[in-house]
């Protein structure tokens, strides 16, 4: 989120980028969504309902995305318990309720992949704060990432690669986007943003921000001092790809954009050269939505 405090940023001029002055679009293996596009649209999110049965884990190169409306799910639970009349609308969740719901549904989904109850899922944090499964309890190599925007939740699941997701309101605007890019983005990104039509500047900045947050979350290095280490495609008419990555091969990373519903934009990143994305929307039990 743009309001997040960011500290200890280095001078971006002190960072070196390979061929920074001559970046060219790379021919990369594009993300395979339902229509072989780099954009996963709302219509491509398959509906799954509670209760969840055991879910097959993603295959090689596959990332499974889950989109949740916590307000809708919370209202359904309250109605099932007889606590709330069915009025067709739901009151906003409190901060505490949102925090509980996010963790509850994350563990519910992870438990479905692991074949255990959600309450039995144990989550730790890496040295840099990335949530990970407790390897002393859970076997396997299941990776996950979570992003939130109000009462909306986006979760990415992968087995074969690190994964990161981000979710942003489509109307979010940064105060002085060019200045933010010049301070925190790579030099190539800031320069490209200056050449974009002013009417599309905010859209281009938001897409880049979502993609970069997803990459940073996948790497697990934390956002501080990381956004300027790599360059993403800024041209809205081009697919979202990583063009350059300090000390890494950008061709070994994949990006995709998500449009889970009107008013939101998401991004998913994975350290794999070829990524397929399957998207799901979790809904209440039949008759409770």
* CATH level-3 fold name: Ribosomal Protein L22, Chain A
Would you tell me the structural class of the helices and strands? alpha/beta
End-to-end span in angstroms? 29 Å
- In the predicted model, the low-confidence regions spanning at least 5 consecutive residues are 1-37
- SSE order: EEEHHEEEEEHHHEEEEE
- Numbering strands along the chain, what is their spatial order in the largest sheet? 2-13-3-7-6
Largest sheet: 5 strands, mixed
Walkthrough of the structure:
The strands form four sheets. A five-stranded mixed sheet has the order 2-13-3-7-6. The protein has a four-stranded mixed sheet with strand order 1-11-12-8, with helices on one face. With 289 residues, it is an alpha/beta fold. The chain is built from five helices and 13 strands. The N terminus is likely disordered.
């Amino acid at each position: 989120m743009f309001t997040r405090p960011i500290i200890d940023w280095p001078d971006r001029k002190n960072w070196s980028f390979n061929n920074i002055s001559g970046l060219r679009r790379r021919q990369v293996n594009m993300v395979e969504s339902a229509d072989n596009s780099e954009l996963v649209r709302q219509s491509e999110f398959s509906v799954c309902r509670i209760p969840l049965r055991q879910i097959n884990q993603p295959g090689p190169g596959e990332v499974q995305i889950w989109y949740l409306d916590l307000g809708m799910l919370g209202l359904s639970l309250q109605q099932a318990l007889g606590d709330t009349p069915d009025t067709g609308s739901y009151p906003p969740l409190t901060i505490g309720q949102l925090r509980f719901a996010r963790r509850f549904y994350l563990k519910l989904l992870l438990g479905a992949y692991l074949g255990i109850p959600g309450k039995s899922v144990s989550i730790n944090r890496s040295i840099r704060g990335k949530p990970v499964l407790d390897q002393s309890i859970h076997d396997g190599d299941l990776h996950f990432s979570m992003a939130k925007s109000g009462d909306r939740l986006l979760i990415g699941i992968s087995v074969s690669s690190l994964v990161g997701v981000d979710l942003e309101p489509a109307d979010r605007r940064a105060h002085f986007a060019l200045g933010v890019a010049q301070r925190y983005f790579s030099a190539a990104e800031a320069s490209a943003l200056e050449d974009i039509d002013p009417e599309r500047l905010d859209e281009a900045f938001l897409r880049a921000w979502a993609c970069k947050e997803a990459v940073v979350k996948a790497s697990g290095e934390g956002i501080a001092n990381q956004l300027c280490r790599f360059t993403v495609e800024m041209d809205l008419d081009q697919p979202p790809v990583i063009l350059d990555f300090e000390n890494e091969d950008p061709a070994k990373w994949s990006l995709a954009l998500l449009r889970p519903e009107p008013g939101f934009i998401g991004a998913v990143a994975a350290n794999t050269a070829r990524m397929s994305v399957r998207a799901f929307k979790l809904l209440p039990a039949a008759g409770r939505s």
